[in-house]
Each structure stands twice: as structure tokens, then as C-alpha cells.
Amino acid sequence: MTDTGSTNRLDKLKALRMSYHDNLPRRMMEIESSWLSLLAGNVSSDVRHVFHRLVHSLAGSAGTFGYDEISQKARQLEHVIQRMIENNLSLSDDLVVQVATNLTELKQIANSDANTVKSLTTNTESMNEVTAKATTLFSEESSSTSRLIFVVEDDDAIAEEIAVQLNIFGWEIRTFTTIQDVYKALQIDTPAAVIADIMLSEGGLAGAEFIRDLKHNAQQIKLPTVVISSRWDWDSRLAAVRAGVDAYYVKPIDFSALAERLDVLVYPPTDEPFRVLIVEDEDILAAHYAEVLTQANMYVRTALDPADVLETLNDFEPELLLLDLYMPSCNGTEMAQVIRQDNKFNDLPIVFLSTESGRQLQLAAMQSGADDFLQKPITNNELIAAVTIRAARFRALRQLIRQDSMTGLLNHIALKLQLEIEISRHQRSGEVLSVVMLDIDKFKSVNDLYGHPMGDRVIKSLAQLLRKRLRKTDIIGRYGGEEFAVVMASTKQEEAVSVMNKIREQFAKIRHANGEQECICTFSAGVSAFPAFTTVSTLIEASDTALYQAKFQGRNQVCVQNPEAKD
Asked: For residue 435, what are the β-bridge partners?
């Protein structure tokens, strides 16, 4: 995190605190006005609840922005109002005195200049703590790396095969026959990785020696290196380890495994930022929470109106929902129940954020479908930690539930749920989407002739190629066995056919290897589109029908299904 970035982020939080400070007199006037309305004889349930909500909101927000004394006094007043509402008490002289006394003390604290100065100073210190916390919890994104790979191989045929195979997986290959040529090229370009045969014209272990020298001379550059060899003896493996080689592959090379390893070496996996939706009717408080979590490297959306929540859930797909318990148009428990009515959001963590301190009321609120309860005011560091822990647990559990263990793609059930979300989103936007079903041709023969390990290799290769060649917005799943499904957002049917044909042609060129055995495979595919078909079941059924047509017509091709062709 740069000093400039830290300063800018601190300035945002300071601006929010100053805005809250400037609006504090208005808040106090609203509370006093509501109380005067009750004293004037307007003791309806609505007026009582408005009075309670205003005081409740002050108790939570004041503590968040550093006004601890205001928060504590507002909470005392809130408890008095709560008893009045729960017991349906009339405004007796004793009750009027209790409320008036608390309200007078609250106004005195709010008007105290000393309290204002103290709160702003305290919050400046806490902002520095938040920045430090965010820095330790999350690392900055690494800069992008090129797709260029240098290959040192003195056998022209093997060098060409490496270039062809790795190019299928999106790598740009430059081949060299001598170490001297590589050093010349390194003066001009820095590749993403280097692959070298351990045996070159310069000697039996020349490839390992070259990598050792390369690592020594380029200590400031983390350059992934891979050795390929027809040798599997102790001396060559030990030489590679001593040279600092990152991976070792024996010929014939399993190119899909090599491409997968290069992805890990060049692009080490980093955790995606957590996605958090905040539902809070008080805009300045929502903005504060959002800024704190954004500074902790999270993607955050806010919803001030409960009516916007369902649409935002579909579009944003959060990993955690922070929900205020008391809101004007509906309370948090009602919203949680509405959300839980939709199966898509059954596993979404819902965390209430409220000043409510009564454990029985907290438990009752959680029975509506929430998972946890955080009490306002909450410090910035506590908020970051609480959200991080709960979102991380949700992500880990979701991966276990949703991912296919072999390929890492979505499993059958998760893909259908994701397709349902995409259909809803495309219905609102009026855009088209395409659904593709793929099936590896004659896959049983692959298992029968080469064994199941080879079949597993073929499945992994296709999964990796789909991930590499499709967009990040496309949804890929292993539908079952050797069958895959792809949901291509905002994509016309003819565009989907064109993309899948290119991938089909590339897949047919991959040499799948398992030990000394090698094979080449193809796949067939069927495509349907929304809104020609409007539901999960009809889209998948139509794509399946087109897939069977492709199989019937000779395999290794892509067919489409249109509504008029259904019969």
C-alpha cells in the first residue's frame, strides 16, 4: 500500500466522520421533535417506533464514529423506550421524567465541544490501526506477467512440439538451440518462465547448469524454471534440485500437466477479495462500513432500501450480508426470512449488526435465518476481523460443496444454481446468454485402451483448456463423468458456436500422456440460447439434444438447438 493511497483512504474516513459531526445537531433535533410529538398526545404505535428507531440509530452510529459517551447515553434512553413499547406503557409522569432526563443528558453530551474534539482525535488514531490491519491481512495485487516462455531444446522436432502444445494453452513460445542464444535474448526480453532440456549440446547436465547460473545472475527476478529430460536417474534429478529448478518432467511430456504447472508457477494463486453486501438505512454509516472494508481489500456494495436487496444479491453474489436489525420499512428479521425463501441464498451468511444487547432478542432474531450477531458500536478492526473470519469460512465450505474434486470446476448442482442466477440477471437486462453441453468422444474406449489414469488426464486437460480459453465471466462446470457444461453470459448462440469450435479444434491437437502412453481425443458439443429457452431445465435439455445430434452426425462437431427444431 503506497503512502499516497493510505493518505487518500484516511482522508475518506475523515470526511465521513466530519460529515457525521456536521449532521449530529440535525439528528438530535429529529429525536427531540419525535419526543415532543409523543408528549403532545400522538402516542400511536408508529410514532413510538419512529422515536425508538431514531434513538437506536444514534446509539449505533455515534459509537462507530467515536462518540462513545453519546452512544452509551443513547443506549440507556433506548432501553427505556423499548420497555415502553414492549409493555405498551402509557406516558406516566415517571416515564416522562425518565425519558426527559436521559434526553437532556444526551443533548448536553452532544453539545459538548470537548467530546467532539476527543472523538475526532480518537478516530484518527483508529484509522491508522485500520490501515495497518488491512496491510497485514491482505497483500497488494501482483503486477501482470507476460505469457512469453523461453524453451532451450537442441532437438528441433521436440522444440516444435513443445511450442505447438503449449501454444494451445495460451503460452507464447520462443525456442533456442544453444545457451548462448538464450543469454542474448535475455538482454532484450524477460520471459515469464524458462524451460530447458537437461541434456544439451554443451553437456549432459548443461540445462541444469544453465538454470543454476541464471538463478544466480537474476537474484532480483523470480523466474520460474522447468527441466525436461529423457533421463530419470538420481544424478540428473539431484543436479536439477541443486540448480534450483522448480519442476522436472520426463519425456514424453504430459503437456496439459506442464501447462497447469506453469500457470501455478507464473501466476501463484491469490485469494480473491471477499464480497460483502451491507444493508443499512443510514447512508453515512453504510458509507463508513463500506470504506473500512474496502480499505481491507474487500469488494463492498451497500443497499439503503430493502427493496433493492434481492436484485443486488443476484447481481453482486456476495459472500456475506451485513444487515441492520432495525430499518424503517422492514426489520432485519423480515428481510432475512425473505432472503431465505430463495434456495439460491440458503448458504449465504447473514450477520445482524445492531445495538441490541439482549441475548434473548438476539437469539430470536437469529431464528429468522441469520448466522451471527455483531453489536454496535463495533471498532473498525473488530469489523474487519469478524467479516474476514465469517466470509473465509463461507468460501471454504462453498468450495467443498460446489467444486468438482478432480477438475476444480463447478459440480452439477452448483452449475445449475449459477445458471438460474444468470437467467434472472439476463431477464432483467434483456440480454442473451448461451448454454453449451460438451461430451468427450468415445471416452469409454480411452479408459478401456489406456486405463482410467489416462481418462482422468483427458478430463483434466479439457477442464484446463476451457478455463484458459473462455472468459472469466463464463461459468464452467463438470456436469458428470466426461460431460461438461458452459454458461456464456451476454453471448449469442452463433458466437458461442464459433468459440466452441475453436476450442474443439485446439483440444483435438493436444497429446495426452500417461507414462509412455499417449492419445489424442475430441469432443462434441450442443448449444442453446436464452431467451429462446427460458428455464434451467429447457436450456440444458435443448443443449443436450443438440449434443446428441452432434454425436449422431459423426462426433467432433458443434450443433445448435432452436425452439422450432425441438419437435
From this structure: 487, 528
